[in-house]
């Protein structure tokens, strides 16, 4: 990894679920553009290895790992404090951790429903609650990773869609609540992305106007923009990055 720019130089980012997948890509991208990154995850071995790799590749102490259970507020408090203790401040929170579950209201498992809401929605709330006290003095950027399932209905995804819609509502409400502190809050809504979580899914791409899924780097480039001062006048936005999947019915044929 080489230093690509100073777009987020001096900023400190805390990223949940960052040991692998999209979170890992976000951490590497932010570090490559000048930020210090705190990789927060349950996966200690993978998260620690990623932090060490980023430090080795950048030749600087710009990454650290902290154990994080996103459903536990005390764990979030420790993670936010660890970021400040290690790097002196906290400028960016990326609420990236999440799980994907199946089932309609008819057949979804009740315990899976509760676990999905706890991780995918409540986890975002707890992360924001822990981060805001460290951001109030100087402002910052909170980036909540939702999904296109938080913009349109998704068959057989009751818990997942409910949580991701909730993330959008939490984002817009918090943008109003936190605006006076200079804290921006935006939600990112990826469509089909190649990650370990989606590797086992059987998917076609006919519904996507661009005809393909996204590479994680394409999502990370949007995270970089939202973390940087280039987006200082953006808050409360719901940003679809989906190859046009939510633009309309791409499978409908002319009569």
Automatic annotation (TrEMBL):
<dbReference type="GO" id="GO:0016491">
    <property type="term" value="F:oxidoreductase activity"/>
</dbReference>
<comment type="similarity">
    <text>Belongs to the short-chain dehydrogenases/reductases (SDR) family.</text>
</comment>
<dbReference type="InterPro" id="IPR002347">
    <property type="entry name" value="SDR_fam"/>
</dbReference>
<dbReference type="InterPro" id="IPR036291">
    <property type="entry name" value="NAD(P)-bd_dom_sf"/>
</dbReference>
<dbReference type="Pfam" id="PF13561">
    <property type="entry name" value="adh_short_C2"/>
</dbReference>
<keyword id="KW-0560">Oxidoreductase</keyword>
<protein>
    <submittedName>
        <fullName>3-alpha-hydroxysteroid dehydrogenase</fullName>
    </submittedName>
</protein>
């Amino acid at each position: 990894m080489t230093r690509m720019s100073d777009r987020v130089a001096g900023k400190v980012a805390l990223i949940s679920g960052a040991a692998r997948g999209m979170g890992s890509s976000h951490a590497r991208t932010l570090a490559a553009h000048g930020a210090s990154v705190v990789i927060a995850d349950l996966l200690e071995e993978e998260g620690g290895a990623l932090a060490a790799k980023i430090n080795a590749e950048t030749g600087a102490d710009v990454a650290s790992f902290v154990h994080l259970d996103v459903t536990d507020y005390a764990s979030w408090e420790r993670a936010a404090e660890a970021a400040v203790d290690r790097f002196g401040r906290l400028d960016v929170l990326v609420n990236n951790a999440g799980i994907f579950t199946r089932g309609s209201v008819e057949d979804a498992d009740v315990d899976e429903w509760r676990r999905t809401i706890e991780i995918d929605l409540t986890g975002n709330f707890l992360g924001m609650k822990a981060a805001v006290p460290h951001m109030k003095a100087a402002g910052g950027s909170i980036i909540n990773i939702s999904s296109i399932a938080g913009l349109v209905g998704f068959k057989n995804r009751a818990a997942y869609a409910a949580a991701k819609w909730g993330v959008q509502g939490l984002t817009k409400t918090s943008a109003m609540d936190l605006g006076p502190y200079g804290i921006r809050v935006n939600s990112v809504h990826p469509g089909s992305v190649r990650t370990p979580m989606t590797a086992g899914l059987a998917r076609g791409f006919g519904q996507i106007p661009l005809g393909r899924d996204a590479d994680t780097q394409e999502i990370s480039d949007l995270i970089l923009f939202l973390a940087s001062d280039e987006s200082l006048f953006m808050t409360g936005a719901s940003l679809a990055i989906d190859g046009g999947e939510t633009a309309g019915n791409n499978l409908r044929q002319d009569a």
